């Protein structure tokens, strides 16, 4: 009871860490600015240069490389042509991206919750099973699906061999594309979400319950808002990837114009989203 | 809102409450009556099971055995949101995404109270815990440590519980502010008349605030009593040492009529037999440092020991001397005004009377 005077270790050491004297260079650029400059320049060039190139190409004759040498507005006329299917493709990819994002949020939430609170020591095994397919190329995995579902493929062929009517023909239809996207992008929703849920302290859940909240109220008032940073990052990732995914298919189809407009669109979207999000908060530096 | 002189009834009762986690016994057969309106503090070192006990009382854990009753009704399995009790967490568990006002209003919101009534009640509670009205919309994470304590307290009061639990809420607060908050908490207890059950590892904190103190050790409730009883009549060596720095001498009863003999310190001593067991022949003599004195020429005491001062510490108004007696170190505390010049060879005689020491059974 009488130890108080002993428990005050003097700490004069901290005096040595006084702020360094300002120098002439500090007036120009702070240390942070100087160190981040190379990254900023690299990213800006990498992001802006292609956009400028695309902008220049947009005034060039279609299917030529006559940048800066020809000037035409044909490409723009083409975009606003009512009969152009670009807008339809655009709507498809937007729709797919939204659907993927929304469905994955619903699918991944219970799994993320389980990984945090229910699975216990099994959660590391479950995580590994989710990570493992990422080591195999996306194209290879999707081709595996094709082999499985294609006519006379694994499913269809096996069923026929056993004397049944044959499997359902689900390939090359919108639901199948959506299923493929859900399958490929699940980890990109799951892991940020799991991280987000892990950031909700157990005490807060207990406290909310102790203060009279039922499960639904705890979820809505405490768990969801606090896990939101992780959920948002997951949604952003899957949405951006989802839009790009259809673009890849279009690359194979040879309609490069769409890819270009996607790139611009994604850039604008990312800017719009990030300008509204407080990144410090997102990264947990509340 | 003063405390009535009406007879105090037990509000919470624990009968044979036990909690095990697999093979580990966290809480062992606890019987305890909590009197309505009292400030009861459970003290114990970390790992003594006090937090587990509190979690069972709050409904976050269920006892493995035994019963917890509230107003005579068994509440073992009643979930926390259905109990008229509320816990102030060690971490405070404030909702970081909500303002001070929204934190305090949370228990009212989930109960469906309308926004206007909620705000009025929140402002009222903020006055009670001495938070300025302007803090209602302040981000709770921008509040200082002391302010957060007040928010947590106001939030718990908004639930309007019959019993308030505290899980070491002041452990991370600096000494000076802690003293202020201790006093405020005690005032608040008087004002509200609610039952407070407080958990801490600091007996000093317990002594200041409590009507009664329960001392826990290794899952058992070793002693329950008023601060005075705990301080002056500890039931065993553990409780006596928990109360503060003490000198403990192990003694054995000598032959018929002969005085007690020291085991770890050679010599014969005048010893009062242990209170709980007058027939015991093996005991610990516990002497608080402030009850020991240096014997100068001509001074006498019933018991004395010769030793060497090898260290002295200033405790502000008092000085603590460390005196080596054989293998043992004895602590002597004197008020500064009574401090004696130590002889050049630093040898001293330490003395005490049997009535100044407490004897507990071994």
Structural class of chain A: mainly alpha
Taking Cα atoms only, what radius of gyration of chain A do you get, to the nearest Å? 27 Å
- The residue-averaged pLDDT of chain A reads 77
Level-1 CATH class name of the largest domain in chain B: Alpha Beta
- CATH fold-type name of the largest domain in chain A: MetI-like fold
| Mean pLDDT rating of chain B | 89
CATH class membership of the largest domain in chain A? Mainly Alpha
Kindly report the greatest chain-chain contact and the residue count on each side. A-B, 24 and 39 residues
Alpha-carbon distance between the termini of chain A? Answer: 38 Å
Sum up the overall morphology of chain B in one term.
elongated
For the record, the count of structural domains of chain B works out to: 2
Number of helices of chain A: 12
Brief description of this entry?
Chain A is 69% helix and 0% strand. Chain A contains twelve helices and no strands. The model of chain B has no long low-confidence stretch (mean pLDDT 89).
